[in-house]
Amino acid sequence: MMKKHSQSLALLRSITIVCLLIAMLTACGFKLRGSFQLPAELQKIYVVGSQSSDLVRDLKEMLAYSAEVVANRSDADAVLTINKEESDTRTLSVDSRGKVRESEMEFSVIYSLALANGDILLDKEALLLVRDYINDENDIIGRTNESTVITRDLKRDAAQQILRRIQALKISSETAVK
Fold first, then answer.
1. Which of 54-58, 75-79, 139-143 has the lowest mean pLDDT?
2. 20 to 30 A Cα–Cα from 52, which one of 61, 96, 111, 165?
3. Distance of CA 172 to CAs 37, 41, 78, 163, Å?
4. What is the DSSP letter of 72?
5. What's CA 56's distance to the chain center, in Å?
C-alpha cells in the first residue's frame, strides 16, 4: 500500500514537472523553426517564379508552416512574385602565385507581393546577401563543397528574410477589402 502511494506521488511529481517545463517553454516565445506569424489577410499565398529555383522551393516549404500555399492564382489571398534572382562570385584576394585565396559570393533577389484584388503591398523589393570564404589550395574538394553549401545557405537566408518582411507588414482593412 505504501509502495503504491509513493509511486503515485512520483508520477504526480513527474507530470507536474513536465507541465511546468511546457508552460515555461511557451512563455519564453518558443515556436517551431520555420513558422512565421503572417497577417490574417495573407493565409493563402500563390508563389510565382521558376519552379526549378531553390529559392522558390524554400519559400513554398517555409510558407507551408504558416499559411496555405495554393496551386491556383485565383484561390490566393496574395501573390508573391520572384521577379529576378542572381548569384555572383568575385575574387577578394590572391596569393603571390596568382591563385585565389579569398572569394565573395553574392545572391540578390527582387520580389513583389500583391493582394488578390491587385493592391501592391511590396513593389520590387530588393534583397542582397553576401558571404566571404577562404579558398584552401590544399583542399580542392572541400572548397567546391563549401561554395555549394554557401550558395544553398544564401538562398535559404533570402527566403527567411522575405518571409520576415512579409510578416512585418501592416495591412489596413480598407486595403484588404478593395
1. 139-143
2. 165
3. 17, 10, 14, 19
4. S
5. 11
Angle, CA of 83, 88 and 93, to the nearest 5°: 155
CA distances (Å), origin 122, targets 12, 37, 114: 53, 18, 7
Q: How far apart are the first and last CA of the chain?
A: 71
Per the structure, the complete domain to which residue 2 belongs is given by 1-30
Statement to judge: residues 68 and 102 lie in one domain: yes
Output Rg (C-alpha) for the chain, integer angstroms.
Answer: 24
Least confident of 2-11, 20-29, 98-107: 20-29
User: How far apart are the C-alpha atoms of 163 and 36, rounded to whole Å?
Assistant: 7
| Residues 46 and 97 reside in one and the same domain | yes
